[in-house]
Write a structure and sequence with these properties.
By secondary structure, this protein is mainly α. It has 2 domains: 132 residues, no CATH class; 142 residues, no CATH class. The chain has 11 helices and no strands. The longest helix has 30 residues. It is flat and about 60 Å long. The termini are close together. The C terminus is likely disordered.
């Protein structure tokens, strides 16, 4: 029996991913990929600190006083950029303890710090694959597929040739998000109003981003009958898309490394298969 040989590792993939989590680009420096390390640090932390500047570091002041604790920000997208989040908590925390006006750029700034977390999660995927793959392009393709899966549910699957699964993911998750937004009458599209529900729905990517930019500043002047159901639907849609991202990442990495794929997941002749000869 002849098996495809495993590629030699550049380093420990788990160490590379953990280093990236603590400091964007650090995992790539550990792997000897200096250019990638510098570029990812500049991109991820550049977005993060631009977001801090626009928001005045007041994002976590969205939380009601009874919800503020040292671990409260851990349920926000910024947790994927752990070093940045800890820096923000150390220097800004929950503010001076008094109510004060938010800066004009807080919506965009808060969105950018959250986006830095998503991008660093993708950078962790890139570092993990780069440590295991022999070709640099393998890590790039895996990270790109994962990023596309966040940007639009189902897009990552579609680019992998798994079009039926991509269509199902898109219809179910985007439909769930739209239903939730309709039930909540758009009130879910505000991090200030619903901090944790917003964190969940941020996982659905562009639908949440564009929805907030278009309608996030709306005023709520009356009770909304189905707001609780709407918040749950929209948030669950985003969290389910995180699972879809993991599926895309795992499938892509397995394909790039020549590992076995489930027969039911290979939908196109172009998909790679591992040959086992007896």
């Amino acid at each position: 029996m002849t098996l495809t040989p495993k590629p030699a590792r550049r380093g420990d993939p788990n160490v590379a991913a953990l280093l990236t989590w603590f400091l964007p680009g650090a995992g790539h420096l550990y792997l000897g990929q200096f250019a990638w390390g510098v570029a990812l640090f500049a991109l991820v932390d550049g977005l993060f600190f631009l977001g801090l500047r626009l928001s005045g570091g007041m994002t976590f002041e969205f939380l009601d006083p009874e919800l503020r604790s040292p671990f409260a920000p851990a349920l926000s997208p910024e947790i994927a950029n752990l070093g940045g989040m800890l820096w923000q908590m150390r220097n800004y925390g929950f503010g001076p303890g008094i109510v004060r006006p938010f800066p004009d750029g807080i919506v965009l700034g808060s969105m950018l710090t959250a986006l830095s977390g998503v991008l660093n999660a993708v950078a962790m995927c890139h570092a993990h694959t780069a440590a295991r793959a022999s070709a640099p392009e393998a890590a790039r393709r895996t990270a790109l597929a994962t990023l596309c899966a966040w940007l639009l549910p189902g897009l990552g699957h579609f680019l992998q040739g798994r079009r039926t699964r991509g269509a199902i993911v898109f219809a179910l998750l985007v439909g769930c998000f739209v239903l939730g937004t309709v039930l909540a009458e758009g009130s879910n599209l505000s991090r200030e109003r619903h901090f944790y529900y917003w964190a969940g729905q941020f996982g659905i990517g562009l639908p949440a981003l564009l929805g907030e930019l278009a309608f996030g500043s709306m005023r709520v002047t009356r009770d909304i009958g189905f707001v609780d159901a709407g918040l749950v639907f929209a948030s669950v849609a985003g969290m389910l898309n995180v699972l879809a991202m993991i599926d895309v990442y795992g499938w892509s990495e397995s394909k790039e490394l020549g590992l076995p794929l489930k027969r039911s997941e290979v939908e196109t002749p172009a998909a790679s298969k591992v040959e086992i000869r007896l």
